[in-house]
Fold this protein.
Amino acid sequence: MDEQPWTNRITTLFQIKFPIIQAGMVWASGWRLASAVSNAGALGLIGAGSMYPEVLREHIQKCKAATDKPFGVNVPLMYPSVAEIMQIIVAEKVPIVFTSAGNPKNWTGYLKENGIKVVHVISSSKFAKKAADAGCDAVVAEGFEAGGHNGREETTSMVLIPAVREAISIPLIAAGGIATGRQMLAAMVLGAEAVQIGSRFVCTPEASSHPAFKEAVINAEEGDTQMSLKKLMPVRLLKNPFYEKVRMAELKGADEEALTKILGRARAKKGMFEGDLTEGELEIGQVSALIKKIKPAGEVVREIWNDFLEARKNNFDY
């Protein structure tokens, strides 16, 4: 692999070697995964969305012990303990925070006042402008193909990335439907300066997701994921008996209250962390159809980077 650092606004902003960010996924992105990705020269993120505040503190401390490279924390702003989470992040001197699922104005100023770089995840040009206006250092434009909770706009990455690039001047990170270096190159050609990758890193030994879930992901084919629960918060799910239960309820016109009852509590934990492939909620992206092996996170980073360089060499004379 070409070990020469790739220099652009994102690698400079985060002080990383490669413009690759591992998404902070619930029930997958703990300190082991984040530190392994950061040690490989990319940016690892701890996913706070599935952690109580003190659990997050433990993961941050263990990540700092496992790597001397930059890492960050992803914080869904709808999190009920978001104030405590932010206080812990500041106290532990986390250098980078990715926020999502909420208004970036609420916390960007506080984080930046404490010397933290802030990136917000968006699903439209309108929200990209709001993130820029809020003072974010960069945005992640996440297309409809992405796993987990998704934007209501249903805009695919091929359309979203150039639209957001046109709308803002701050650095742009592409996400949604990216697992290979060739896809990374396509995103960069469309205007991105880095990529955020989630599903590919689920299928690593360092991810805290259950082995049964990882096996289900690598066995997925095209069409095996679907957006669901649009009346609550849209989420892309791997099809299983729980998904079918939701689908049938939605076909019958189930309202928000009925869907909330079906969803219940800790459904994502049951599926992705505990490995219940029947009754669990299995969040993963469309790109799962291209993931066929479980590999160490560092190897995934190297594979993506090599694939990117080869595709760039073979397709562009610059």
Summary: The longest strand covers residues 71-76.
